[in-house]
């Protein structure tokens, strides 16, 4: 009975993490026309970095010193993770300037595809048959997204920006997996704080920082910070594979929220694409017993 209760807690946390993280695209879309994109990302990553640091300071006694100490060998990996996160977040917010939040959210499903492809081609990890099937379904869904009025339209630069962001996240995920022993709040705080500093520099170079919408700090803490932290905690109750399956539905939550909040147009091709990509998610997370 206790095991079942813990599993239910893990499932709830994984759902919460997927839901919270899906708000990143929604929030960025809301403020993209009111504020410089560099400042939006600076404030959101600042909120995540500082918020998670506070959580770490209150919980650090629960973790051994080796789980928080960064070794010299890991520094280059962390630098690459920060660069990938910087490029990914910038690509997403640039895409949001021209296309709907629902489309951006749906295309972020490519993250699971890129993670597998990067693992295979860059990090020389084996690729399973179910992953190949998943990639086919996600690509098919993407193909149908561009099927309009009986013909295939050109894939927009903005869609390619989202896919590039997913490539950056794919590299990021594989590198992070190699240093996953680090306490999650501490490690994520370092990553988010580093990205925030870089966006602060870019903001100062551009037009300076206005702090016109400080609420973005809170949004960043909730979506980036708590979204990632609750996922990390859920893996301890639910197991990594099941938690990842639930978290993989974050883009779908983003699509639903986009239609509710922004009243974006729902088309038949979009629905078909969503169904195909959900099937892709299920195949990607399928594990033989």
Description:
By secondary structure, the chain is mainly alpha-helical. It has one domain (2-284). Helix content is 75%, strand content 1%. The protein is built from twelve helices and two strands. It has helices at 2-31, 37-59, 75-95, 101-107, 110-121, 129-145, 157-177, 184-206, 215-238, 240-247, 250-262, 268-284, and strands at 147-148, 151-152. A two-stranded antiparallel ribbon has the order 1-2. Helix 6 runs antiparallel to helix 12.
Distance between the termini: 23 Å
Question: What is the spatial order of strands in the main beta sheet?
Answer: 1-2
- Beta content comes to under 5%
The H-and-E topology, N to C, reads as HHHHHHEEHHHHHH
The class by helix and strand makeup works out as mainly alpha
Largest sheet: 2 strands, antiparallel
Return the average pLDDT rounded to an integer. Answer: 85
The value of Rg in angstroms is 19 Å
Helix content: over 70%
Which descriptors apply to this entry?
75% helix; two-stranded antiparallel ribbon; 289 residues; single chain; globular
Helices and strands in order:
Elements lengths: L1 H30 L5 H23 L15 H21 L5 H7 L2 H12 L7 H17 L1 E2 L2 E2 L4 H21 L6 H23 L8 H24 L1 H8 L2 H13 L5 H17 L5
Antiparallel strand pairs: 1-2
Helix pairs in contact: 1-9, 1-10, 1-11, 2-8, 2-9, 3-7, 3-8, 4-11, 5-7, 6-12, 8-9, 9-10
């Amino acid at each position: 009975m206790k095991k079942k209760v813990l599993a239910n807690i893990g499932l709830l946390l994984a759902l919460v993490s997927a839901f919270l993280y899906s708000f990143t695209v929604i929030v960025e879309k809301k403020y993209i026309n009111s504020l410089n994109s560099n400042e939006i990302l600076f404030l959101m990553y600042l909120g995540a970095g500082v918020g998670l640091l506070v959580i770490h300071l209150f919980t650090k006694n629960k973790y051994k010193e080796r789980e928080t100490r960064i070794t010299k060998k890991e520094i280059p990996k962390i630098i690459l993770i920060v660069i990938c996160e910087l490029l990914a977040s910038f690509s997403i917010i640039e895409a949001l300037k021209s296309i709907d939040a629902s489309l951006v959210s749906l295309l972020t499903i490519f993250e699971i595809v890129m993670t597998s492809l990067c693992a295979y081609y860059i990090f020389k990890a084996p690729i399973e048959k179910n992953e190949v099937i998943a990639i086919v379904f996600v690509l098919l869904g993407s193909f149908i997204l561009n099927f309009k009025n009986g013909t295939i339209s050109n894939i927009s630069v903005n869609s390619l920006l989202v896919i590039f962001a997913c490539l950056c996240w794919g590299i990021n995920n594989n590198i992070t997996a190699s240093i996953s022993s680090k306490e999650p709040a501490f490690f994520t705080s370092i990553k988010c704080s580093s990205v925030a500093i870089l966006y602060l520099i870019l903001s100062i170079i551009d037009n300076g920082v206005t702090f016109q919408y400080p609420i973005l700090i809170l949004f960043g803490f909730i979506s980036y910070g708590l979204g990632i932290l609750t996922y990390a905690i859920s893996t301890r109750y639910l197991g990594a594979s099941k938690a990842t399956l639930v978290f993989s539905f974050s883009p779908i939550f983003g699509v639903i929220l986009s239609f509710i909040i922004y009243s974006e147009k729902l088309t038949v091709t979009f629905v078909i694409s969503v169904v195909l990509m959900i099937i892709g998610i299920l195949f990607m997370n399928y594990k033989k017993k």
